[in-house]
Amino acid sequence: MPRRLLDAVVGQALAGAPKASDFLFPATGPAGALLDGAFVPLALPGVAGRLTPHQTAVLARGLVGDDARLLADLRRRGSCDASYRHPGGTRFRANIHRAGDSIGLVLRRLPTRPARLRDLDLPPVLSRLPALADGLVLVVGATGSGKSTTLSALAAAILESRPVHVVTLEDPVECLLPPGPGVVSQRELGTDFPDFAEGLRAALRQAPHVIVLGEARDRDTVDAALAAAETGHLVLATLHTADCAGAIERVLAFFGPAEEKLARSRLAGCLRYVVAQRLLPRLGGGRAASVEVLFANLRVRERIAGSQESSLGFADIIEQGAPHGMVGFDAATAALFGAGVISEETALAKASDRAALARALDAVKASRGLPVSDIAGLTLEGS
Predict the structure, then answer these.
(1) SS3 content of the chain, % helix, strand, coil (to 5)
(2) Strands across the sheet containing 22-25
(3) Closest by CA position to 142, among listed 294, 357, 289
(4) Spatial separation of the C-alpha atoms in residues 187 and 190, rounded to whole Å
(5) DSSP structure class, residue 36
(6) Could you give the 3-state DSSP secondary structure of residue 339?
(7) What is the CA radius of gyration of the chain?
(8) What span, in angstroms and rounded, lies between the C-alpha atoms of 35 and 310?
(9) What is the DSSP string of 110-171?
(10) Cβ atoms within 10 Å, residue 379
(11) How many Å apart are CA 76 and CA 69, to the nearest integer?
(12) Which pLDDT score, from 0 to 100, does residue 373 have?
């Protein structure tokens, strides 16, 4: 009964918001959907106003069922993650969570097939990534910034171009990858392996060329990812950080002071690229990706391996590396504004350095013959 009710409610939600990326069923609030990142209330037939705690608990039972692992996670951590396939074919990543004495859930729609790398409007330098033979590539950003989409597109591009074995470790499996000339083994947390660190260690015994890691979320997982990258494998992993500099500092922060020097040396030796993403509202609807790119040239490797005391930060290195394909967030955002994709207000709201970005936007407006100041009507005294 709970599963049939879940299928019926999700079917109504899909009909009410067919283009939504997420569906939210909070414990004590109106059901809603995220359209282009904005919350929109949903009218569900048979539901008067907001869902009751009993109704959301029944929906959660339809997802969790009798799964001992999920029930243990919900009891111990207050939330759990599961995969869900609607009878209509739409797949979701589900989060069930406690909120006070009630239960809420969020469903994120999963793609039916991976996006093509060339269709994602990423910086041209990233077309080099599928040819990498080894090392560590980090795709970072906030939740909902498109990390998984980029990661699956990279994996699909590799499988399309090379006869390799790709092993993915996901929570849950998000996008079914076509094998192409190679072969792919997609494994799901909780069902196929107990945790990411153990999954990585096991993957090294499965003759992989490429390992796709759903999330580097703890020290043991990061240590195993570095070990895999150091031993001739290409490791693609996501991380929850705001930008490229934050990704490097986050990786190093997993290791204690006694391990810092070795951790710096290991990361400097195996890091290849860091890609950071933000999704911005497009003019006319939809969202566009602002993408920062850092690749590990000699200067970056020296900066990672050296002490924290350095006059040259990663933002400076990215800016100076622009002729070689590095891109900073503000430069990427200014380019989106210059192409007429986003508004000036959107660009400034997501600025890393607001003053620097404002100058870049003014340069774009000046090139179009537009005013660069809101101040008007000034005259010289006495004129």
Answers:
(1) 40, 25, 35
(2) 38-41, 32-35, 22-25, 102-110, 91-99, 79-85
(3) 289
(4) 9
(5) T
(6) coil
(7) 23
(8) 43
(9) E-SSPPPGGGS---GGGGGGGG--SEEEEEEESTTSSHHHHHHHHHHHHHHHS--EEEEEES
(10) 6
(11) 10
(12) 58
H or E element that contains 24: strand 22-25
CB 58 within 8 A of CB 8: no
Give the model's pLDDT for residue 205.
96
Phi, psi torsion values for 103, nearest 5 degrees: -125, 135
Distance CA 249, CA 244 (A): 9
User: Both tokens of residue 73?
Assistant: 């996670």
**52/132 Cα distance (integer angstroms):** 51
Which residue in the block uniquely carries the two structure tokens 């990142």? Answer: 37
Q: How many residues does the chain have?
A: 383
Beta bridge partners of 141: 277
| Both tokens assigned to 297 | 């040239």
pLDDT along the chain (383 residues), means of 10: 89 94 89 92 77 90 91 93 93 93 94 91 93 97 92 96 96 89 93 94 96 95 97 97 96 95 97 97 93 96 77 88 94 95 94 92 88 58 56
Q: How distant, in Å, are the alpha carbons of 125, 129, 202, 287, 322 from that of 360?
A: 22, 29, 48, 21, 15
The pLDDT value given to residue 262: 96
Residue with tokens 């999954």: 199
